[in-house]
Design goal:
This protein is mainly beta. It is 9% helix and 55% strand. The protein has one domain: Immunoglobulin-like, CATH 2.60.40.
Length: 77
Amino acid sequence: MDVDEAVREGRYIVVKALEDGVTIMGLTRGRDTRSHHSEKLDRGEVMVAQFTDLTAAMKVRGRAEVLTDVGRVESGT
């Protein structure tokens, strides 16, 4: 799969921080799931993230609104 194809087929999530210090962690694919990247958001900040060949899951810690193609959920409540 080339990069353009991966971008076209990748699923996105939107995370809006509802408090300071919300952490978003990208978790790897493969036999051993590991954290490969993390970001901290402050209240009101928004991050758009994409699932890729490397990123299989995302973990959100803190109070945030998370929007995906399957719906909306609020974390940390």
